[in-house]
Structures are given as structure tokens and as C-alpha cells.
Amino acid sequence: xxxxxxxxxxxxxxxxxxxxxxxxxxxxxxxxxxxxxxxxxxxxxxxxxxxxxxxxxxxxxxxxxxxxxxxxxxxxxxxxxxxxxxxxxxxxxxxxxxxxxxxxxxxxxxxxxxxxxxxxxxxxxxxxxxxxxxx
Length: 135
Known about the structure:
Blueprint: E1 7-15, H1 17-24, H2 28-35, E2 40-46, E3 49-55, E4 60-66, E5 71-74, E6 82-90, E7 93-99, E8 106-112, E9 115-122, E10 125-133
Antiparallel strand pairs: 1-2, 1-10, 2-3, 3-4, 5-6, 6-7, 7-8, 8-9, 9-10
């Protein structure tokens, strides 16, 4: 049985976010604002169907998907690109591949203890974020 990701998660660590945003082509002003934000993720999981919402005081983003089904994703509020996206299980990890304008783009989520880990990749940059489940 795959891990249960459902819950509300608050960021506690964000490493290499600036370089990741540069790789995405996000403008200077937006990068400076985004680097100061403390995102909260709300994940709703129903079997292999997910909705991941990311909330900040600046912008919010929501993505819904079913494991193994490719979908068209518009990264509105992020870098505003269109990707063909698919998310699959790799043991208890959620692995996302986003095919589009940027090479080697995607993310991986996994749970370790009471922490939600997220690695975001774009081109040669990797951003590592850690979230703690809120009580």
C-alpha cells in the first residue's frame, strides 16, 4: 500500500530555490518575492487520485492528477508554461515528469517520519524542500 500523503504541510527548509527559479526563467523581482515566502501544502489523496495545493501570501497553485495518467499542466503562477505531465509511484515516492520547453523538469515527493520531502528539478538545478505536517 502506498504512503498516505494527505494532510497539511508547512515548509521548514528550502535549499537551492533561487538557482531552480533561474533555471525556470523566472524574473528577478518574482524570484526575490518567492524566496521570502513560506509555502504551505495541502494534499488530498484518494487512492491514486491527488490534489496538491500550494498556498502562499503571494500566489497559490493547485494540481490534480491520477497516478499513471498523462495530463496537460499549465504552471500558472509559477513560470506559466505548458507541460505534458505524468506522476507515477516509485515504491512510496511520487515521481513527476514534466515534458515541455525546459529539460529535465519534474519533482519527487516522499515522506520520511513526520516530514514531507520535495525535490524539484529543472535542467541542471535541484531544489530540496522539507515540510512538516501540521497538527
